[in-house]
Amino acid sequence: MTTLQKKRVPRLLQFALVVFGVYFGFILVFDVLLGQLIPRSLLTMYMVFVVSGALMAFTFTEEGGRELVAPIKALVEDPSRKKLRNAVFVIVPLLAGYYTYTSMLPGFEAPVELRTIHPAPPSKFKAYGKSYNLTTLENPYRKYQKEDPAKFRELVKAGGDVYIKNCQYCHGDKLDGKGPYAAGLNPTPINFQDVGTIAQLQESFLFWRIATGGPGLPAEAAPWISSMPVWENFLTEEEIWEVILFLYDYTGRQPRSWK
Amino acid sequence: MNRLTLLAFCAGLLFAGTAAAKPGDAAKGKEIYDKRCTWCHGADGDGAGAAKYLLNPPPRDFTSGNYKIKSSSFEDMVPNDDDIFRMIRDGMPGTAMPGWSDLLSERDMWNLVAYVKTFAGYDKPPGAQVDFGTRISSSVESIEKGRKLYEEGDRCVECHGKSGKGSASKRLKGDAGERTWPRNLTKPWTFIGGNDPKDIFARISTGIAGTEMPSFADPKSKKKLAIEERWHVANYVASLAKAGKKVDAGNTVIKADKVDGDLPDAPDDARWENATPSTFYLVPQLIAEERFFTPSNNTITVRALYNDQMIAMLLEWDDRTRSNPGDEAAEKLADAPIAEDGVAVQLPVTVPKGMQKPYFGMGDAAHPVNIWHWKSGAKDAPESINLVNSRGFKEIEKRDAAVAGLKAKASYSDGTWKVLITRPLMTSSPEKDIQLTEGRFIPVAFAAWDGSNNSEKGSKHTMTTWYWLLLKPASGSRPLITALMVMCLFAGGLLWWARSATKPAA
Description:
The structure holds two protein chains of two kinds. Chain A is mainly alpha-helical. In chain A, 53% of the residues lie in helices and 3% in strands.
């Protein structure tokens, strides 16, 4: 037992390793792998939980707690470590002072805006002066894909013309969300080529998003910043259904359906 | 062993290279063309897609045989296959033509090259190529020689202006009859054919087919330039870049510094040099009737300073035409009817406490905005600053700018507007005007009108989304004093601990 203990990494170091490991883990996963900077305030909140959790685990037994603080106590009490102690006593106040100074300087980082990218759709919505039920709404032209392929091609072509006249400025000729004006918009236009977008949605959801545009979004999706126009002001219902056919056809995806 | 793999790799590369350069298959190219390209360029290759009149530049008409960006000599209309391939692969920045290399394979793109050439009946490679001679690298002397040639006899100045911003003295049009604007040479990242001096040399040598940009290699031209001279001009043009006008996507905050005493009272005041510039994209207004499809302004640069009482904002953007209704020369350059140039700053009436801002397009019913709208004036009317409160596009209330203390002063010089807008930080009607306080992130957005480009309708303008305005507070001595106090506390605590811990031993 004693030989085992001697080989072990000191508990204080273990504790430090756990805390820093989790910290850099967060950075690695969010900032590096996902490419989405984790907001500082959120990271601080997580780390408070991590530190207190680890403290609880490490001081679960009285012996464990004593072992954890032993190196610190030794530093203060053991006369042979006087030099190290003096150094620590100078460095710690300096660090505390530096931290206080930098955190009190006013910051100029823009506030973080969290918004839901794929909000839950309402069950009903209004457009074109009528009410639509999203659970039963279907693309009236979808049936021609099987019943009348020639007619379907025509409808897709009409949808493509609607797209090129109205949508490509932002969503791009390749439907990749990189149109000529995309860089000037925040939030950036949706990329329809991405498997995570229209392939996961029903056509009724697209109809709702197109007809009511940015201002038709629920509050959690920040409708006030979305540049998506309210298309019921510019397009007919038929044109919206046609352009939806085109979006799926061009990207080679199929809409989700209840069936 | 290692050498062997390297050899095999090189051989592979060589093979891939020759395979790619082989002429493409026009029949296979047609399949791709019919799926990907007809939308803009039309089924017959004549550029007559559905959006022909909504795009500027309009989609290329391949039946005309004109290719803007090419490396064959000006004497030969036929481009090299490489020229067409490059346009398909890399696209043309700032236009609707994207680069296709992520969606199409190299093979697909060569097949497209073969098919696209058939529209003009091009079946032979071009005869003569651009003669690049020996490249002259850029130097102070070369740039100075280039400047002289650029200005001599108005060679380039005629269209591109002395500063290179394309400030027009001539109305230009393209081969489809469309309005064209001379390139703003101070923004090389907008060049559709690349911005390396070698690319610029090629443009000067071949001209740009289908536009009024001529070839300066043509010995019949009065303005012709020798190879060496063209290198000097290319180096000079490359030196005109104004990097500060490039958008930094990471910067969303306009930081206003506090100054002691008076604020600058003119757009050209030297003190503006010390203010931090922020540049944002301007995009055409596409959310409300009537929409705007052919913008001529693409960025706006904003600086701000403030003192105890006032804020001053300097708005700067490139506009090739000073649109002056009533002035004959200005009206000739405009798409009639000419209107005033203008710029606007949009701010929420109340700084939002949470995340919710007013709708970025002129506010909404529950969240009104202030709009400070400057207009350039006409021949017989002075410039003006207008104050508007709006709750969306339709609910607009005109207010008295003078009562709110809103003032503006502008200058136009060689293709650039600079407008200085000042207002007191606080006004007498806080329920209707934004009150500007230090240290808060205040949403701000901008709009710009080019009166010579279809701006007779107020809705035809360019705009930005929401950014932030921050009046940077002077931090004073508080952080330093607090930090010293914290240091003393820590040091005291540690000493006390050490003493109490060592006491029993002593």
